[in-house]
Write the C-alpha cells for this entry.
Amino acid sequence: MTATSAPGSGRNPSGGAHLSGPAGANDPGTAEAADPHGDVTVERVKLSAELAGAEGRAATADVAEYALWLGDDALILSQQLGAWVARAPEIEEDVALANIALDLLGHARSLLRYAGTFDGRSEDDLAYWRDEPQFRCAWLFAQPNGDFAQTIARALAASVYHFELYSALQESSDPTLAAIAAKAVKEVEYHRDHAVQWTLRLADGTDESRRRMIRAVRDVWPYVNELFRDEPLIDRLDGVAVRPSTLRSGFDAVVTAVFAEADLEVPEAAVSSGGGRRGVHFPALGFLLAEMQVLARQHEGATW
C-alpha cells in the first residue's frame, strides 16, 4: 500500500510512504533514465520508524489478531476519506482530508505489517487478498461517507476514539505496538482537532448545516458502542492490548464538551449489533473492498 503526500499540504503525513525510483534514476548517465517512471515497488519503502522494536520479533497469533483490529480500522477509514479528494467543500479540505487519509494509511501499513509477521503475509497480502469475513474493522469505519456532515460526525467519533486508544497503547508491553502508538497519537491529535472544528462550524453555521449535522450525529452514533466492547481476545492480551471499555470515559468527556459547545445532544438511538471484530460486517464494507482490491486482484504481481 503506497501513497504520496497531497501537493501543497504543508504537512508531511509521515505515516504515508513517499514513492521514489531506484538510486540514480534521475541521472541521465544511468540505464534507468530511459524509463521516466522508474521501477517502484513497495519493497523499497521502509517502515523502520513505525516498527521500532520489531527486529527479530514476530507477533503471536493473539497479538496479530489485535493488530488486525487496529490496522483494518485505519485502512478502511483511509479508503473512505480518499473518496473526498476533489469533492470536498473547499480546496483546503481536499488537502486536509487527503493528509488525514495518508496518516491513517501509514498506521494501517505498520499494523498490518506487524500482524503479518505471525504467518509471513505482507501488508499488501492482508489489504488486498483477504475477503470480507477475514477483516476485523468495527462497523463505524465502514459507514458510508454520506454528505460532508456525516463524514465529519464519523471522523469525530473515530478520531476521539483513536486518540484515547493510542495514548493508552503507548504503555503496551509489546514494544512494536507501543512504538506504533507513540507515532500515531501525534497524528490523530490533529485528526481530532480537525473533526472538532468542523463539528462546531457546521453546528453553529446555517440552518441547513446545523440540520445536517444533527442528522449526521443521529446516523453515526449507533455504531460508537462497538468500539468499547471487551471481546474475549482482550482477556488474553493483558498488558499488551488496551481494554476498550477503559477508553469510554475519556471519549465521553471529550464528546460531551464538544457537543455542549455546539449545542448538540447525544442521540438516544438503538445501538447497532456490530460484530466487525468477529468478521460480521456492515453491508457497505463488501462494496468498499471490491473497489479497493480490484486492481491488485486483476493485475496480480504488477509493479510500476
